[in-house]
Design brief:
Two copies of one chain form a homodimer.
Chain A: H1 21-28, E1 32-36, E2 39-42, H2 44-63, E3 67-68, E4 74-76, H3 77-82, H4 85-88, E5 95-97, E6 103-106, H5 111-121, E7 130-139, E8 154-164, H6 167-187, E9 192-196, E10 207-213, E11 219-223, E12 230-232, E13 253-256, H7 263-270, E14 278-288, E15 294-305, H8 312-315, E16 326-327, H9 330-337, E17 354-358, H10 359-362, E18 367-373, E19 376-381, E20 392-394, E21 413-427, H11 429-433, E22 437-439, E23 445-447, E24 449-456, H12 459-467, E25 469-470, E26 473-474, E27 485-489, H13 496-511, E28 516-518, H14 525-535, E29 539-543, H15 545-549, E30 552-557, E31 564-567, H16 571-581
Parallel strand pairs in A: 3-7, 15-17, 17-20, 27-28, 27-29
Antiparallel strand pairs in A: 1-2, 4-6, 5-6, 7-8, 8-24, 9-10, 10-21, 11-12, 11-21, 13-19, 14-15, 14-16, 18-19, 21-24, 22-23, 25-26, 29-30, 30-31
Chain lengths: 582, 582
């Protein structure tokens, strides 16, 4: 491509509503332009990145035996009603009526449509396994679209759905997708981790997120540098930090802590480590009887160490909480604790409360907790002596860096990540809801064992930029750069030697299959360099009269601190060698 | 691709709601599956065709210097309100509200969004010309979606938009697109015509439809076999069939024609040629005064020869009718003609009526027309003698086969066609409405001269099938076939020789870049042949033990009546030679 024939549109400043670096750089480099909140046009420069991402995904999906199809963006309500998602999904599912007042939605994913296809098309076990995928526009009506392509409303997703005879076969489909995803993100040149994730109501251990590592990532991901353990924070298991409970060593004392409503403040006031305090969190469940009628409220007190955070996903898996919970109201707290939040604790309850202690809390002795009296905490509290043993001991906290790895092989570390892919075993959730069955070898109908596998195509450029940028702009990995190399001729308009050398190199790179751009705009070097460093082209060759007199041109990799000289003789080969190094 | 790894899903019968052959065959061949009215999933077999169509379009658009981008499917009302199309477009524009009650529409085309992009991005004449295109999902909420992909609601369109400095430059952009379209449809192997089309309010002569010729086409296209004249029926000029008006030769006679309300019936009753009769059509315009207030109704009588049809597009260009017209009500007809329809004519009107005669009618003498009295017609009517000269003489009829070509080079013929592309000069219609200007060389802001250029990507397979099919199924042109060649091994499961020969040929074709499928399903020959003839793969090689014993396999082109023998020695080369012939 010649730059004069292309559309290079860079901005000095990003619009003020761009909050994160990838959003700012994508706007400044002319990759995207905003059309409405969370809705963008992919400009020619941006679309080149998207197409390269799509092609890698497509090649690896095909290699893994998946079959591409395209489901509609506009989907009828009837299918979504079969699974109940028409009602269950929030406003993210954009619903509307057509001219005949029939209900439709814009696809956020396509489990319903593909399961409908499968129940019509896959009649026999002989047709299994099958894995269908599409690379197609999706829409989620986010309440607060932001971060550019990272949390947009209209986006492109690759979504795949596998159909298998049984759990074992579904496991093989899952493993094949896991392997394909590793190849995909390897080929894209991204630093990523596949981390175990929560499977929710589906159960089992087959759910992995593919997270691009970036300090600015929304997600916390947990790993063990000494082993291959990796999970997202929602799932990562927190072992007890105390192997056993020590004997009581202090008396229970009701201690004035005026105005100190947080563990940190109390610890500071008393001059003790935060690790000696216990934090109280009060939840409530609205119980129903066997007939499904309301049957009162159960109040829950969850206890984690003062320096720990409650993990709501883990709490949501506990017996009694797994059908849904909420934080207790102030009235419910007063009724059960006789005190307002900030000074709550497990000692001296007015009414029965289910007490759940985190594994570490359950082994603490002489701990500090709220006294259920405003401006007072207890010190020297001990299980069994000052209060009953907890009703339940469970892992209900987020791990923190330095915690022992659940596999016993070292200490956990935490990174930030951006989710770009997710592989998920669905079981028979959708096939049973939609009565999607096949005839098995024994002649009996069985529901498909399913899996679903997503990749956020339009999110990947954003994640790649969050991971790879500097103060001058984007630094693309070669495989997904809009152009692999840029040739910057200095004095294009006035020097035939520069034009000839630049054009010859351009043609040689093109002939070698390199996606190069020749900057024939006749701009000053400063303008060219600023543009291409902002756009993030990974390799630059600068050709000027001064160098040519000495038979030399300059090569500079986007991450290189300085340019290096290359001889004009054998120039194309030398440049190709540089490209091959990446 | 091996058939066992692919998804071949053919049906013996098409669903009963499939009306036309392409719809039936696309369903039977497993190319598409219906999700809702006018909304389809493109199954793997169908998507292969779509991808090949897209690739040809993309290559030729790129070759023509157009730049690909992707605009959003969900577009904000504000842009559509700027051009007035938010209100002017009918229910085809699917409008809805997002969760914040803001108005959006699904794109049917993208003039507004691209013009908005241009006014932000293209500031100087130095950046022109530019042509941006996208290949993207569109939605039109058709009242009655039908004919499968031919008139669906969700579809894929390639839409391009050119931006130029002036009319001449816009003409060059137009010509470049016209040439690209010819290359595109040539490469697809389709028989088509580029026909001049109406430009409506834009004016000028730069509007061409690309019509795939098929007897089942919705559109009538007019051409001259002796010249390069071609136009759609709406535009094709009808010359007068009588060079001048003969002198009156008969007396005006009010003739009883009881119950004969059509020209054909009257001519039959009287035993005269249909060409001696004149048909009366009554229109009305609702007039407004200078302040835009209603100012009564004007009634129009349009006269065409009895064997001709009124052309409403031509009528709509007449002074007085070009701001919109309707057919007159029965009350209006009675008021002006004193008679009900069927016996209307230009002689003896009760109230003033604007009389418009077709060019041919204006030169008729001794003609027959309604007498404005039930069950009576006049014979021997003559302009000037029996009634005043018409208020207006104009071309207001459709041409018919045998009419003289407007270029004077022969006689017109008529074919049926399916519109698959349209190139259109827009002028400044959108740029003025949206105040989209650039700074010209003289430092003054000027509105962009625009053109728009569409190709119905998902309609092309339907059109190709309407043009190319037989009683056994589809006959794809090589360039857009889902597979170029199929290898059918007879006895895959039992004969190693068959497997080896088939596999070797498959690998050789693949290595040569041929998109072949190896049918390793171990089906009987009849099943294989029926499937691949239905699917329409253009080349088939059948390999069986019997032939192999004589060192032979069978080749059959999809249009060939019989198979021909090919020697196993040099088989791949022989097959490649056959493929190259197409």
């Amino acid at each position: 491509m010649r730059a004069s024939q292309f559309f290079v549109s860079t901005l000095k400043e990003a619009p003020s509503d761009a909050e994160i670096v990838s959003h700012k750089l994508m706007l400044r480099a002319g990759l995207i332009r905003k059309v409405a909140a969370g809705i963008y046009t992919y400009m020619p420069m941006g679309l080149r990145v998207i197409r390269k991402v799509e092609n890698i995904v497509r090649e690896e999906m095909d290699r893994a035996g998946a079959l591409e199809l395209t489901m509609p963006m506009v989907q009828p309500a009837e299918l979504w009603q079969e699974t109940g998602r028409w009602d269950k999904m929030g406003d993210e599912l954009l619903r509307f009526k057509d001219r005949h007042e029939r209900d439709f939605a814009l696809q956020p994913t396509s489990e319903e449509v593909i399961t409908d296809t499968a129940r019509q098309e896959l009649k026999s076990y002989r047709q299994l396994p099958k894995n269908f995928y599409q690379i197609q526009t999706k829409f989620r009506d986010e309440r607060r679209p932001r971060f550019g392509v990272m949390r947009g409303r209209e986006f492109t997703m690759k979504d795949a759905y596998s159909f298998d005879r049984d759990v074992d076969a579904a496991g093989r489909s899952y493993d094949a997708m896991y392997a394909a995803y590793c190849r995909i993100f390897d080929r894209m040149g991204l630093t990523y981790r596949a981390v175990a994730a929560d499977t929710g109501a589906i159960g089992g251990d087959r759910s992995h997120e593919f997270q691009v590592i970036a300090d600015t990532g929304e997600d916390a991901i947990v790993y063990c540098p000494q082993s291959d353990y990796a999970a997202n924070i929602e799932l990562a298991e927190a072992l007890p930090l105390l192997a056993s409970r020590a004997a009581p060593g202090a008396d229970l004392v009701k201690t004035p802590t005026p105005g100190k409503a947080t563990c940190a403040d109390v610890a500071a006031l008393l001059g003790v480590p935060l690790e000696t305090t216990v934090k109280s969190l009060v939840l409530a469940t609205d119980d129903v009887d066997e007939a499904g009628q309301p049957a009162g409220v159960t109040v829950w007190l969850l206890l984690v160490r003062g320096d720990h955070e409650l993990n709501e996903v883990k709490a949501g898996k506990l017996e009694g909480l797994k059908n849904g919970f909420r934080f207790a109201s102030e009235a419910e707290i007063l009724e059960h604790f006789g005190c307002k939040p900030g000074y709550l604790g497990p000692i001296g309850l007015l009414k029965p409360v289910k007490v759940v202690a985190d594994r570490t809390v359950a082994n603490m002795a002489d701990f500090i907790c709220g006294a259920n009296a405003e401006d007072f905490h207890y010190t020297g509290a001990n299980w069994g002596r000052d209060l009953p043993e907890p009703d339940l001991v469970a892992d209900i906290r987020n791990v923190v860096a330095g915690d022992p790895s659940p596999d016993g092989k070292g200490e956990l570390a935490i990174q930030r990540g951006i989710e770009v892919g997710h592989v998920f075993y669905l079981g028979t959730k959708y096939s049973k809801a939609m009565n999607a069955t096949f005839l098995d070898e024994d002649g009996r109908p069985k529901p498909f064992e399913m899996g679903c596998y997503g990749i956020g195509i339009t999110r990947i450029p954003g994640a790649a930029i969050e991971q790879n940028h500097d103060e001058r702009g984007i630094i693309w990995p070669d495989a997904i750069a809009p152009f692999q190399a840029v040739i910057c001729p200095v004095g294009w308009g006035r020097s035939e030697a520069v034009r000839d050398t630049a054009t010859a190199l351009y043609e040689a790179l093109r002939a070698a299959g390199i996606d190069a751009i020749l900057d024939d705009r006749d701009e000053r070097p400063g303008v060219m360099f600023a543009d291409w460093e902002l756009v993030g082209v990974p390799h630059r060759i600068t050709i000027g009269d001064r160098g040519l007199k000495e038979g030399q041109v300059e090569y500079q990799g986007r991450r290189d601190a300085e340019a290096t000289k290359l001889a004009v003789d054998g120039l194309a080969e030398a440049v190709l060698a540089r490209l091959a190094l990446r």
